[in-house]
């Protein structure tokens, strides 16, 4: 068996008996292998079957030696036959062949030991081959490990070298970047120095151009560009005064700018003189038509604007930027232009004013024609001025005011001495109409160049010619004269008015007024109604003259004076008008007819209602009509004041209506009118009811003085008084209702007062009825409802009779 050492047999002293030979099969049978040995052998065989690695040395010889084949094992028996050299020729020598024939058992045992060793060696050959393969593998692995170590060492060296190269490259990159930054900094510094030097180098170019002789320098294309560059340099040096010699260069640049603007001014003034001389020469020629004059004064004058306008715009821009140095030059240009225009226009203006004939033309027509001409003239001058300049508005308006003074010198004295209030109102109307028609589009020309300090376009702030500024002085004169004349009319025709007999002919004037009115009277009444925004102010010919004059004066002043002044005048006029009405009432009371007292009270109530209507519609403070504060006529005013039944009581009319406290003088005036109106209404109610109520009240008072035991004797008096009451209602009461309808005209208005008369009559009759029943007078005594029906019937008949008589 493989791996076992053959057991050596000890030598015997006797001759050894011959041992039987044994073959491999018998050996295998007698020495079986265990499971462990069999698995080991199988593993070894499987490992041996695998392809061996090539030898390191490159030897192509197999790694496992072949198993030696012994001829001794070939025969059928396990023991080889004894060679017979004679039979087979020379016996080949073999390492296992005994060198000498075996003669002794010991020799045999020795030889057998060699054979056994050879067999064992032969059986262990694949193990040795496997060991050799494993040894080769180990040597190969050791070689690979060695090479891997060398490679790792090389890689470490390469990594160290790469890191060194990387660090060196980074340092180089940083150095290059620093060099690039230094280069860029130097280039930027060079560019900045060059850019800054350009501002200083511009001085030489500007100086060389300004030293160029000739007036046409300003017309060269490079001139305005040079001016722009100088202006930029001045602004730059002002913001960088810390530069070396900046102040010196700044002063020299400013001198260049002043020289350039002076050249523009000189060229402009020279062009104006030449143009003015040419136009003046042609204007003084004979037979020059008006159209030709307009062409010379405006079209010919404006023809040089495209050439001079850009230069003047530059001067205006620089004057705004440098007012201390250049504003005087711009002012000289304005003065030269305006003086030139004035010298050209003065003769033609004087001829036009003479053509208006101020001494003989009517004031309103003179105002309309003269101011219209001046407005057109000022508008033309304004547009022409704007062709050249975008500044100098104040100087222009002073020039236009001087032109207007030529007409104002003739117009103002006429206005200040005008005695007619209507003419003054028409003058104000004409002036206000012209002032309202200001042209908002003038001065917004598309070719206007108006720039700010940075050269960007900006609005000029001009919104057209404000003709109101030129006409304001004349309007103020007209308004002042209008106020003075109105105050004079108020004093003469209202305060100190002496009434005539026909002025106090009431109710005759009212009866006459019920006749159809003429077309002229209707038109005048319509105008007043439109001014005071109410249809109730009609039949003005029935008004007392002071009230007519008051309403007329206020209607004339309403749209032509300031609200505060108008309020003062209105307060004065209405106060004096109320005083004149009170005086007229006293005159009417002393007339002979017994109804004159009622006429006086109704006269005052009628006119106070009209005054209340006027004060409520004039709207002193805001001038805008507000329907919410407008009282819809005399009826509503009367209803609001006499709507409470407590007003029927004597002396209670003042407490029946609480007047709200108003602020200011106008508020006090309204309160005074309301109080006087309430008192007039109370007196009228009392006077209307007096013919019916007085006998009843006197009899009741008389009966209260008689003892109750003697009262039955008054039954006849009570019956006769009842009959007199019915007769008074049909006679005196009807006449009074007719007078109420005549004075107040509206059925609703009459109904308000008659309602209070009715309440008073019912109260007085109720006291009479109670007293009559106490003396046993029952037959024929009416209740309250019957009395009301009778009074209302009387009222309806009285109103119908009044209407029929008027028609």
Automatic annotation (TrEMBL):
| Region Disordered, residue ranges | 1-23, 53-97
UniProt keyword annotation of rRNA-binding present: no
What is one term from the GO cellular component aspect held by the record? Golgi membrane
Biological processes, Gene Ontology terms: Golgi organization; intra-Golgi vesicle-mediated transport; intracellular protein transport
- Membrane topology type, per the record? Peripheral membrane protein
Give every Conserved oligomeric Golgi complex subunit 3 N-terminal domain span. Answer: 132-273
What residue stretches are annotated with the Conserved oligomeric Golgi complex subunit 3 C-terminal domain?
Answer: 295-621
**PANTHER family from the xrefs?**
CONSERVED OLIGOMERIC GOLGI COMPLEX COMPONENT 3, CONSERVED OLIGOMERIC GOLGI COMPLEX SUBUNIT 3
Which family does the record claim for this protein?
Belongs to the COG3 family.
Q: What is the protein name given in its UniProt record?
A: Conserved oligomeric Golgi complex subunit 3
Q: Which organism is it from?
A: Cylindrobasidium torrendii FP15055 ss-10
């Amino acid at each position: 068996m493989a791996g076992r050492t053959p057991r050596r047999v000890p030598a015997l002293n006797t001759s050894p008996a011959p041992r039987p030979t044994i073959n491999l099969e018998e050996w295998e049978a007698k020495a079986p292998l265990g499971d462990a040995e069999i698995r080991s052998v199988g593993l070894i065989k499987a490992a041996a079957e695998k392809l061996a690695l090539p030898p390191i040395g490159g030897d192509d010889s197999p790694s496992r030696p072949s198993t030696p084949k012994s001829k001794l094992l070939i025969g059928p028996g396990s023991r080889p036959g004894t060679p017979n050299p004679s039979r087979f020729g020379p016996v080949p020598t073999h390492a296992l062949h005994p060198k000498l024939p075996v003669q002794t058992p010991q020799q045999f045992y020795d030889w057998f030991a060699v054979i056994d060793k050879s067999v064992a060696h032969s059986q262990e050959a694949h193990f040795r081959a496997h060991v050799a393969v494993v040894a080769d593998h180990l040597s190969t692995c050791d070689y690979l490990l060695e090479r891997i170590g060398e490679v790792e060492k090389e890689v470490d060296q390469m990594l160290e070298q790469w890191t060194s190269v990387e660090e060196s490259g980074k340092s180089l990159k940083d150095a290059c970047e620093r060099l690039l930054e230094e280069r860029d900094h130097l280039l930027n510094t060079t560019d900045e120095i060059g850019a800054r030097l350009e501002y200083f180098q511009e001085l030489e170019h500007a100086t060389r151009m300004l030293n160029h002789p000739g007036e046409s320098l300003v017309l060269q294309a490079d001139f305005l560009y040079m001016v722009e560059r100088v202006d930029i340099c001045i602004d730059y040096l002002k913001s960088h005064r810390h530069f070396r010699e900046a102040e010196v260069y700044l002063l020299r640049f400013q001198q260049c700018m002043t020289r350039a603007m002076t050249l523009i001014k000189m060229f402009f003034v020279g062009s104006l003189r030449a143009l003015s001389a040419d136009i003046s020469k042609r204007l003084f020629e004979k037979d020059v038509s008006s159209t030709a004059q307009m062409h010379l004064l405006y079209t010919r004058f404006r023809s040089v604007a495209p050439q001079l306008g850009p230069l003047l715009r530059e001067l205006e821009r620089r004057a705004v930027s440098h007012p201390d140095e250049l504003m005087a030059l711009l002012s000289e240009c304005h003065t030269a232009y305006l003086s030139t225009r004035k010298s050209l226009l003065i003769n033609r203006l004087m001829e036009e004013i003479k053509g208006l004939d101020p001494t003989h033309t009517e004031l309103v027509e003179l105002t309309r024609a003269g101011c219209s001409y001046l407005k057109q003239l000022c508008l033309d001058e304004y547009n022409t001025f704007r062709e050249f300049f975008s500044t100098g508005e104040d100087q222009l308006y002073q020039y236009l005011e001087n032109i207007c003074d030529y007409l104002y010198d003739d117009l103002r004295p006429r206005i200040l001495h005008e005695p007619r209030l209507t003419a003054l109102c028409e003058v104000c109307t004409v002036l206000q109409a012209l002032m309202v028609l200001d042209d908002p589009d003038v001065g917004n020309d598309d070719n206007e160049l108006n720039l700010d300090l940075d050269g960007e376009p900006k609005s000029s702030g001009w919104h057209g010619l404000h003709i109101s500024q030129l006409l304001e002085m004349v309007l103020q004169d007209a308004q002042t004269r209008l106020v003075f004349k109105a105050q004079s009319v108020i004093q003469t025709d209202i305060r100190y008015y002496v009434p005539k007999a026909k002025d106090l002919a009431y109710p005759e004037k009212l009866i006459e007024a019920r006749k159809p009115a003429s077309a002229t009277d209707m038109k005048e009444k319509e105008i007043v109604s439109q001014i005071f925004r109410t249809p109730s102010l009609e039949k003005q010919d029935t008004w007392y003259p002071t009230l007519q004059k008051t309403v007329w004066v206020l209607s004339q002043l309403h749209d032509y004076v300031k609200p505060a002044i108008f309020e003062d005048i209105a307060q004065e006029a209405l106060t004096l008008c109320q005083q004149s009405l009170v005086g007229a009432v006293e005159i009417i009371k002393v007339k002979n007819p017994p109804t004159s007292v009622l006429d006086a009270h109704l006269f005052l109530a009628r006119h106070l209602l009209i005054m209340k209507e006027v004060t409520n519609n004039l709207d002193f403070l805001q001038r805008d009509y507000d329907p919410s504060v407008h009282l819809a006529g005399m009826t509503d005013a009367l209803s609001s004041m006499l709507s409470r039944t407590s007003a029927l009581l004597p002396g209670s009319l003042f407490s029946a209506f609480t007047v709200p406290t108003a602020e200011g003088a106008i508020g006090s005036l309204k309160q005074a009118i309301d109080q006087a109106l309430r008192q007039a209404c109370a007196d009228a109610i009392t006077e209307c009811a007096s013919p019916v109520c007085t006998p009843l009240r006197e009899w009741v008072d008389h009966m209260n003085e008689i003892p109750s035991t003697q009262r039955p004797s008054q039954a006849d008096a009570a019956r006769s008084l009842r009959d007199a009451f019915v007769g008074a209602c049909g006679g005196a009461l009807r006449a009074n209702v007719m007078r109420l309808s005549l004075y107040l005209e509206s059925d609703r208005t009459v109904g308000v007062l008659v309602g209070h008369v009715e309440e008073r009559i019912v109260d007085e009759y109720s006291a009479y009825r109670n007293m009559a029943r106490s003396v046993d007078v029952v037959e024929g005594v009416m209740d309250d409802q019957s009395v009301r029906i009778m009074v209302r019937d009387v009222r309806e008949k009285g109103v119908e009779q009044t209407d029929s008589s008027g028609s």
